[in-house]
Specification:
CATH topology: Rossmann fold
Helix content: 40-55%
Strand content: 5-15%
Distance between the termini: 9 Å
CATH superfamily: Alpha/Beta hydrolase fold, catalytic domain
Number of domains: 1
CATH class: Alpha Beta
Radius of gyration: 16 Å
Number of strands: 6
Strand order of the largest sheet: 2-1-3-4-5-6
CATH architecture: 3-Layer(aba) Sandwich
Low-confidence stretches: none
Mean pLDDT: 96
């Protein structure tokens, strides 16, 4: 079984720092453009890229764990190529994702030296332990607002609300109770629509639940993987 993590819009594999330390044989992908290469311009484009990544490494019995936009990628992957997956972990995501226009504006008008945009990015990591906080900020600067804008626009067009009930894979759904970008109602919908899905709402956690309440998230992933064996 191969656990593969897919990060969200404008982020990187670092958003799974604590999961990589805990799950030793896991892999967290840096999507193209994050920061190296050219980003894909649609969720389906990212799906094909991730599939190529997995195929090239001959991963088998894949469990895809997607956070935010990464969850959208995981959902589409599951709908298009279910036979290649053993299970899904959907974290802070939804079947339909609409972006607050203020986030798009921050990326389009980042300020001198991207200072205004970076201030917002720093605020989203507030509460993350200091050892990883500085690295997350540095990576965000390397990726930049244009890549995040590209991702958010792709995310904004995503909608599988009428298809998600077709997923028949074992599924774990995790959401922070204070997630404003992908609120609990999104996770509730996924849980209702995906047959047999298991949901965990993490208390005192926001959109970056896997960074800020990582012990609880890791425990929930452990339980899910144990059920798959």
């Amino acid at each position: 079984m191969k656990l593969v993590f897919i990060h969200g819009a404008g982020n990187s594999s670092l958003s799974f720092y604590y999961q990589l330390r805990h799950f030793r044989n896991s892999k967290a992908i840096d999507l193209p453009g994050h920061p190296n290469g050219k980003p894909c311009t649609s969720i389906d484009g990212y799906v094909e890229w991730v599939r190529g990544f997995n195929t090239a490494r001959r991963y088998k019995d894949i469990v895809l764990c997607g956070h935010s936009m990464g969850g959208a990628i995981a959902l589409r992957y599951a709908l298009l190529y279910p036979d290649e997956l053993k299970g899904l972990i959907l974290m802070g995501t939804g079947a339909k994702l609409r972006v607050d226009p203020s986030f798009l504006k921050q990326c389009r008008e980042p300020g001198a030296g991207n200072a205004d945009w970076l201030k917002h990015r720093k605020s989203s990591y507030k509460g993350v332990e200091s050892d990883i906080y500085r690295v997350l900020v540095q990576r965000a600067e390397e990726i930049g607002p244009q890549v995040e804008l590209n991702d958010l626009l792709s995310w904004d067009q995503f909608d599988v609300m009428q298809e998600v009930a077709n997923i028949r894979l074992p599924t774990e759904i995790i959401c922070g109770d204070g997630d404003a970008m992908a609120p609990v109602k999104y996770s509730n919908y996924l849980t209702k629509q995906i047959q047999g899905a298991h949901q965990d709402i993490i208390a005192e956690a926001d959109h970056f639940v896997q960074l800020k309440q990582y012990q609880q998230v890791n425990a929930k992933i452990e339980e899910f993987l144990h059920r798959l064996k």
